[in-house]
Every structure is written in structure tokens, then in C-alpha cells.
Amino acid sequence: MDNKQLAEQLFPQLKYTLGGIQGLYPRRNLPSGAHVTRLGPSPTGFIHLGNLYGAFVDERLAHQSDGIFYLRIEDTDDKRLVAGAVDMIIDALDFFGIHFDEGASKTGDIGAYGPYAQSRRKEIYHAYVKQLIALGLAYPCFLTEDEIQEIHQYQEAEKANPGIYGIYAKHRDLSMDEIQHHLSQGHPYTIRLKSGGNHDLPQDQIRYIQVEDGIRGSLSMPENNQDVVILKANGMPTYHFAHVVDDHLMGTTHVIRGEEWLSSLPIHVELFEKLAFELPIYCHTAQLMKLDENGNKRKLSKRKDPELSLGYYKEQGYHPLAVREYLLTILNSNFEEWRLANPEKSSEEFPFTTEKMSSSGALFDMNKLNDVSKDTLAKIPANLLYDFLLNWASVYQPDAWATLKNAGPYVEKILDIGRKDEKPRKDLISASQIFDFIQYFFDDFFIIEEPLPPEVSSEDAAEILKSYGQTYDPTDNQSRWFEKVRTIAAELGYAVKPKDFKKNPDLYKGHVGHISTVIRLALVGRSQSPDLWEIQQILGKEKTLERIKKAAF
RNA sequence: GUCCCGUUGGUCAAGUGGUCAAGACGUCGCCCUCUCACGGCGGAUUCAGGGGUUCGACUCCCCUACGGGAUACCA
Q1: Most buried of the four, A126, A163, A240, A352, by CB within 10 Å?
Q2: What SS3 string covers A299-330?
Q3: Contacts of A302 (CB under 8 A, 6+ apart)
Q4: A533 CB contact with strand B at below 7 Å
Q5: Helix-then-strand count for chain A, H and E
Q6: Is 90 exceeded by the pLDDT of residue A81?
Q7: What is the DSSP code (8-state) at residue A352?
Q8: DSSP 8-state symbol, A334
Q9: In Å, what is the separation between the CA of A306 and the C1' of B65?
Q10: CB A323 within 8 A of CB A308
Q11: How high is the pLDDT of residue A458?
Q12: Which ipTM did the prediction report?
């Protein structure tokens, strides 16, 4: 018996021949320079900012080159399967404007290079495994878990590198008779790659592989020497094998993945070589980090950092465009510069490059997100902002939703306060913050939250509001309105200009700012707000007078 | 332990042998100003450490330290 017969025995009557498969996956007919990228999540359904970060690179690279971005579900580990995960992943990315052209979708596979779930590609992997066995490049391994453990312990004691390789790959050279014996006993087995690498050579003779990484430039690593498992005992491929076969067949040109894959790159390179596939361009992205309890940088973790799940940003009401902009600023170091020069352009016009990506992990910066968000929201028209706010409220703050729902034009006016000026206000960050920021416009949410300034007594406050109520005229323009406030100040012994008060604090009780603070407290309940005159224009005469009359300190 | 990747201010970073070492966020001060926000001006805070190479190193080489990752029939 030879390898070929063994292959036939192990994988009899496969659905596909290699030639047949090749015919099913023709080269993609795309314009030159088009990038084909993919996102390959395992279906746990959990997506966090780090995943979005990577997905963004895929999406940009594909779409700015008129290429294809597809979704492939990497479900080779049934322990990781969560029901409804695919929909969750698609929805989460969709919210942030990331759409797939091809692959798994809510209504099934789209595209001619499927199936797009690895669990449905078993026969395809088997065909390639069969070939490797026939060529003597892979072999069945009957090592039990205990035996492997033993080997590891021995290696640890000997200070040898762990793994199944060289002399530790005990089943790599089993005789056909021995294999038949195991088989006849019904021993479970995995298929391992028969690695061509040899690290027992003198240091200077170990072969190194050179790979040009799209982000990191040229990489040099020792070649793989591990007889890695390519097919598990249950017949499913491991990630390593599925990655190589799928990305080849599906025509992926650029493999974007986290840097945690860097150390298994030699395995993949060997697999590509053994299968005689062309190597795609790898882009190993830096991980998004966060600070742990001890002040150390740490990779974002699914379990430990629920606040970095995409759900968190949705819940807080960060606008997807803002998150996009922020991600772009940390993804490409020249994005901010470009944005400054092109304030009105869509971020899709930004020429994204992997060369401008950092190879070291960035710390997630909430301050920066907020700042970017302010700039972003300042450019979004009030009616769209209203829709966004309403949408958010319908899920996360139902009482606000009830209030906002029937007040469209009113809310739009509120959102537009000071935004159309030459130097527009930028105080809107996220939906939850926006609602908090404007809630005093609604009687149901209006309360006086802050006390009078110390310069103003309760009596004076009452006096101020009384005069104000008498002189208030909604038809006054802004400067006329403020003249009247100054008049009240003067009448009650307050300086008309803050500077006067600063120069001679003894001459006055306070200054005009204190007067308007009282009016502000009566109208909005806070000592800080946008321009009062504008607020009154929106509140309207009745509500303004009512609040002035009702206010008590 | 071994292997891989990384290290410019509090954060994100430009930089590729000769720069007073950009810029943004944050922070502090001032200006504008009825408050806030916006805007303007200015300050403080950086090349992890040590050796080389060189007329000259943030830039090139080596060592150390620190951080991250891998080391599965998980991805």
C-alpha cells in the first residue's frame, strides 16, 4: 500500500475532485488593482470595537478599489456557535455603515464562491487533505490527548519547544501496517501536516521565510516546523487549513487580521506552498488596547470589556458616522490632516492605505471620540439628527421618545441653535447627551437644577424676574433684549458690564451676568445654556412668561 | 521557558542620518464674552535605557528593560 491508496482508503468517494473544485471557483473577473477582502468571524455573535476596526480596513480596501468584500462564517468549532450570531454580526456592522457585497447574509448565501460557512465546506477541505496525503505531505495521527500531554510535559522538562514536530511527531512515519492496525481498531485520528521545516539544524541553517506584510513591511521568521493538525478527528478543518483553502478558492487578495495571527504565519505560508496556492497579501493590524487595572496596556477582551462592545456605543447614542470618523483617525495617521483639508467630503473619499496604519496597538481614547463626535454632529442637518435621536430614544429612553415623537419641528429648531453661525456651536456628542442637553425645552423634563449665584439674594431674584416679566417683549431683537437686561441690572445695583464690576467690586452687588443667570435659571433650570434670546424664540412667549412667573428661589 | 511583534509628551501620532522633533485630543493660562459651547493666542509635557556605526543619530546595528501576542483536535 502506498500514500495514494491510503488517501483513497481514508477519503473514499468524495463529492469533489480537485479539478471539479477548481472549475467551481474560477478567477474573479475584476478590474486590475481590485482588492478582495473578507471578514471571517466565528459565530459567537459578539463584536467589539476591535472587530469593527479590522472590518473597516477590509471594507475600505475592497470598496475603494472596486473590489469585493465578503462575509465568511468561520464555524469550524461547534463550541463557539451561538444562535442568531450571523444576524447579530451583520446588524452590528450595518449600523456602522459596513456592508458586504457577498457571502453569508440574513437570507442565505449571496455570491458564486460559496458556501460561505466553513461547516458547509467539509467535502472541499477533504479533497485537499486527500491530495496532501496522497502526496505524502500529510498523515493520519492517532496520538491520544494523554499522549500529547505526555509529550508536552517531556518537552517542558527538556526545555524543548512544545508541539508535535521532528522526533515528537511519533506518527508521522508510521508504516502502512501500523496505520491499518490503528484503523482496524477504530482509533480516532487527526490529519497532520508533514512539515518540511527542521529547527534542529544549526542556527544559521534554519530556513527563514520572508513575507511582505501590507502594514508591517518585510517580515522574516523561521519557517514552520510543526506538524499542525489540519483536519480534526470530527472531520472539520482547523482554522489554519480552512483559511488557506478558502482564501485561495474565494479569491481573497488581502487577508486582514489581528496581529495575534502573526506567530502562525509560518504555518500558513507552508500550507500555501504545499498546496501550491498563491500567497495573498497579509495585513496584520495592531490590536486596539485598553488600560487595565494596573495601568498596563491590554488587548481588548470580549469577556472583560463589555463597555467596548459595539452595543455600548449604540446605547450611548454615538452616531455611526462619528464612530467611523474616529476609527479612521486611529486607522490612518493622515486622516485628520485630510479631514481638515476636506471638511465637507464623505470619509469614503479618503484614500485609505495600509502603509499609513500603525503597527503598534492604540489605546482607545474616549476624549478623542467625543471631540470627533462633536465635529461630526455639527455637520449633520437638524432633521437627520432628529431622526437619529428619535430612533435612539425609541429603544433606550422611551419616555423621551414619547415626548420627542410629536415635536419634530420644535426639536429641529432646538438642535439648530447656534449651529448655522460662522462659528457653529459644537456641543452635541451622543444621543443620550443630546437629550440631556435639551430636555429643559419640555415641561415634563424641566426642573430648576441649580441654586442662585451667591451674588443674588432671593429677594433680588424675585425682583429681577418681576421686572423681566414686565419688560419682556418677544418681538425684541437680540440686542434690544439684552439692553433691557442691562437696564434691570442697573436698577438693582448691578454693574452693566462685568469689567466694571471687576474694577470696582465694592460699588456693585454683582454684574449683568448674574442677572442673566437668574433669568437663565428660571427658563432652563441651569446656569449654563446656549443663547437665552434664541431659547426664548423657540420656547415662545407663553412658556417663557409662565416659567418666569413660576420660578421660585 | 521558547518564538514573534512592538516602544516619539497623559492619549493618537508625523518623522525614514543633519528638523528650533509637525499636528490633533486632553490639560493650564490669556483673549472674545451675560453663562456655556465655538473660535483665537500662548504655555507645560516626548524620542525607554546602554553601547556601537558615523563628521552627525528619533532615524542604522547590538544588548537590556518594559509592553503585547503566540505556544490547542479555539478562532
Answers
A1: A352
A2: ECCCCCCHHHEHHHHHHHCECHHHHHHHHHHH
A3: A44, A46, A48
A4: yes
A5: 23, 13
A6: no
A7: -
A8: T
A9: 33
A10: no
A11: 87
A12: 0.92
Q: Is the CB of A82 under 7 A from strand B?
A: no
Is A225 near strand B, with its CB below 7 A from some atom of it?
Answer: no
Q: Which three cell numbers stand for residue A96?
A: 456602522
Q: Provide residues 133-162 of A with CB closer than 7 Å to any strand B atom.
A: 143-145, 148, 152, 159, 161-162
| Nearest residue by alpha-carbon distance to C1' of B38 | A425
Q: Note the pTM of the prediction, 2 decimals.
A: 0.89
Residue A318 pairs in a beta bridge with A430
Contact A429, A374 (CB under 8 A): yes
Grid coordinates of A412: 429641529
> Cβ contacts of residue A406 below 8 Å, gap of 6+?
none
Find where cell 506584510 sits: A213
Which residues 358-417 of chain A have a CB under 7 Å from nucleic chain B? 358-363, 365, 367-368, 370-371, 374
Q: With beta carbons less than 8 A apart as the criterion, state whether A375 and A421 touch.
A: no
Confidence of residue A292 (pLDDT cuts 50, 70, 90): low
pLDDT in tens, A36-52: 999 999 988 778 888 88
* Strand B bases with any atom < 7 A from protein Cβ: 1-8, 10-15, 22-26, 34-39, 67-75
Structural contact between residues A553 and A462, judged by C-beta atoms closer than 8 angstroms: yes
How many Cα atoms sit within 13 Å of A452 on the Cβ side? 19
Rounded to 5 degrees, φ, ψ at A291 are -85, 130
The answer to whether A60 and A37 are in contact (CB under 8 A) is no
DSSP at A452: P
